[in-house]
Write a structure and sequence with these properties.
The protein is mostly helical. The protein contains six helices and three strands. The two termini are about 25 Å apart.
C-alpha cells in the first residue's frame, strides 16, 4: 500500500499493516538462508547470541533472544545434543546454569553468522545511509511506544 492517507483505514492501522508486512518480508528473505545453514531460526538466534561471549544464564539468554522462555530450554537441549552448546553451573549463583558454545558451536557461529550478516547486508545496502538512519530512528520510536 503506497497510499499513506487512505480514507477507509485509520492511520494507526496502516502503520500496523506496514510493520507486519515488513516483518513478514524480512522473515521470508531471512529464514530460507538460515535453514540453508542447517539451523532453525531459534537455533540460529541462540548460536548468534552466545557467539563472542563467555556464555549466559538462561535468564540472560531469554532476554536477549527472540525465543519464548518455554521454548528456550528445548532449543538448547537440541543444540546440546548436537554438541554445539553445553551447560555449565554458574560460579556466582549455584541455582543458575550457564549456556556456553562448545568448540563446534563456536566454529559454527564463526561460519554462519558472517554468512548470514552478509546475506542481509546485500538487501539493506539498497538503502541510502539517510534511509537507514531514518529507519533506525522510526523503529526505535516504535519500540519506545510499545515498552
Amino acid at each position: 500500500m503506497n497510499d499513506i492517507a487512505s480514507p477507509d483505514k485509520p492511520l494507526y492501522m496502516q502503520l500496523l499493516r506496514e510493520l507486519v508486512e515488513a516483518y513478514q518480508a524480512f522473515e521470508g528473505y531471512s529464514l530460507p538462508h538460515i535453514k540453508s545453514l542447517g539451523l532453525t531460526p531459534a537455533q540460529f538466534d541462540v548460536i548468534a547470541t552466545l557467539g563472542n561471549t563467555e556464555g549466559m544464564t538462561f535468564k540472560e539468554l531469554g532476554e536477549r533472544t527472540l525465543i519464548y522462555k518455554t521454548t528456550l530450554t528445548s532449543v538448547v537441549d537440541r543444540l546440546e545434543s548436537q554438541g554445539l552448546v553445553q551447560r555449565q553451573p554458574s560460579l556466582e549463583d549455584r541455582r543458575s546454569t550457564i549456556a556456553v558454545l562448545t568448540d563446534a558451536g563456536d566454529a559454527l557461529f564463526r561460519s554462519a553468522f558472517p554468512k548470514h550478516s552478509e546475506y542481509l547486508r546485500q538487501r539493506l545496502d539498497q538503502l541510502s545511509d539517510e534511509e537507514m538512519k531514518a529507519s533506525i530512528e522510526a523503529l526505535r520510536t516504535l519500540r519506545r511506544v510499545f515498552r
